[in-house]
Write a structure and sequence with these properties.
This protein is an alpha+beta fold. It has 4 helices and 3 strands; from the N terminus they run H-E-E-H-H-H-E. It has helices at residues 2-5, 47-64, 76-79, 82-91, and strands at 14-24, 27-37, 96-100. The longest helix is centred in the middle third of the chain and has 18 residues, at 47-64. It starts with a helix and ends with a strand.
Length: 101
């Protein structure tokens, strides 16, 4: 399906979509997070470079600032402050759309 929309000779692009379903305070919710990134040609960074290095860098900086205190193998969603993390990615021009479905 993507072959028609994203030709191989087209502009560099990374697509991410995560849909979460569950309950919060007993109320059913469905939330979608979506990123469409085309990289930054002016800085010589591909979308894949940005979406692999920026999140890791943000988390390392949060750890060094004491904002992440968990030790060991902990899933990111349990130890990384989500709002701060998303804000830091947005500050680096990573557009994240959050939609309540």
């Amino acid at each position: 399906l993507l072959a028609d929309k994203l030709p191989r000779d087209g502009k560099d692009c990374v697509l991410v979509r995560v849909v979460l379903e569950g309950k919060k305070n007993g109320i059913a919710r469905r939330v979608q997070y979506q990123i469409v990134d085309h990289g930054d040609a002016a800085q010589g960074l591909t979308a894949m470079m940005r979406l692999t290095s920026y999140p890791i860098s943000v988390i390392a900086q949060m750890m060094s600032a004491g904002e992440i205190t968990g030790k060991g193998a902990i899933p990111q969603e349990r130890c990384v402050p989500a709002e701060k993390f998303i804000g830091e990615l947005r500050a680096r021009s990573i557009g994240i759309e959050i939609t309540e479905l």
